[in-house]
Amino acid sequence: MARFRTWVGIAVAGALSMSLAACSSTGGKRAEDAREAAAQGRAAVNTPRWTFAMITHSGDGDTFWDIVRSGAKQAAVKDNINFLYSHDDEAQQQAQLVDAAVDKKVDGIIVTLAKPDALKAAVARAEKAGIPVVTVNSGSEESKAFGALTHIGQDETIAGEAVGDELNKRGRNKALCILHEQGNVGHEQRCDGVAKTFHGTVQKLYVNGTDMPDVQSAIEAKLQADKSVDAVVTLGAPYADTAVKAKGDAGSKAEVDTFDLNAKVAAELEDGTLGFAVDQQPYLQGYQAVDLLWLYKYNGDVLGGGEPVLTGPQIITKDQAAALAQYTERGTR
Q1: pLDDT band for position 38 (50/70/90)?
Q2: Residue 280 burial by CB count (10 A; 0-12/13-18/19+): exposed, middle or buried?
Q3: What is the rounded CA–CA span in Å between residue 256 and residue 234?
Q4: pLDDT tier at 26 (50, 70, 90 boundaries)?
Q5: Is residue 21 helix, strand or coil?
Q6: Is the bond preceding residue 213 a cis peptide, omega within 30 degrees?
Q7: CA nearest neighbour of 260 among 64, 121, 13, 47
Q8: Which of helix, strand or coil describes residue 170?
Q9: Is there a contact between 220 and 196 (Cβ–Cβ < 8 Å)?
Q10: Would you say the pTM of this structure is higher than 0.85?
Q11: Please, are residues 309 and 303 in contact by the beta-carbon 8 Å criterion?
Q12: What DSSP string runs through 73-129?
């Protein structure tokens, strides 16, 4: 946990340094002017209009990535950045999108490494072309080796360990961990992290995350076959409600918990439908990624000291859900 505290300190320091970068001798007023300018769709700086491309492994309709993109776009407005966004949940296609960004001679690239082996050559090509790269969300262990400036996100193993600890506090004995994207190293790390600290047993269930009826039927069948399962852990907010429906159809009393947060999850936490959620602050991931690239281009700044800049995990329960509801409704949490 010392490592966790260290990385949290780095993340806090990073947030402070970005705030200070927007200030001058006028102090807080300059920072306030920057926020107001961004809110009105105006740049808060007079640096060149660089182009940054973000390429993620998101599938269509994933609300998590809407929040990441929202944070990135807000920072892009503030930093006078021409922001390009593309995504593909197939690793080879994602790599081709990175290659396309290199061919466009963009000034910076933000990329996720859910399936790092498939992205390695594309990232190397970007760096050979002199384009700085920041990795975000997934691939923290590969980021440095691939030559990225830094990685922004949560450590998936630490996040899984936090879930295991929370399940222990709740007296759970058998957890079902739902993996909705096979081959995603971050998802495996999450479930393995749960197993590392959980005093009970953990079973993995692989489902086709692009087919929600299939996800629901697979979870329902498992819960019907094994009544001893008393916790279901989904790895993304859109799957939490599906797991709740599967639980009801199966007549199970298992608690449903989830990684990630959105408006639906916040509401279900508040009414007790869900037990808890693990928030990795996706808005912050997108915002910091753009801001850090801007700081690098403008001032040669690099955050992290060779370690990931952590944006989570934060365990959200019923007690905190109401306070976060306003942020989830506007799409920033």
Answers
A1: low
A2: buried
A3: 8
A4: very low
A5: helix
A6: no
A7: 64
A8: coil
A9: no
A10: no
A11: yes
A12: HHHHHHTT-EEEEEE-SSHHHHHHHHHHHHHTT-SEEEE--SSHHHHHHHHHHHHHT
Tell the residue number behind the tokens 């508040």, with chain if given: 270
Close Cβ partners of 327 (under 8 Å, ≥ 6 residues apart): 333
Spell out the alpha helix ranges (H) of the chain. Answer: 2-21, 28-39, 63-78, 91-103, 116-128, 140-143, 156-169, 185-197, 212-225, 237-250, 263-270, 282-299, 318-329
And the tokens for 48? 């060149």
CA-to-CA distance for 136 and 155, rounded, in angstroms?
A: 11
CB 190 within 8 A of CB 138: no
At which residue do the structure tokens 């946990």 appear?
Answer: 1
pLDDT digits (tens, 9 = 90+) for 123-158: 999 999 999 999 999 999 899 999 999 999 999 999
Q: What is the pLDDT of residues 44-60, one digit of tens each?
A: 999 999 999 999 999 88
Binned at pLDDT 50, 70 and 90, residue 41 comes out as confident
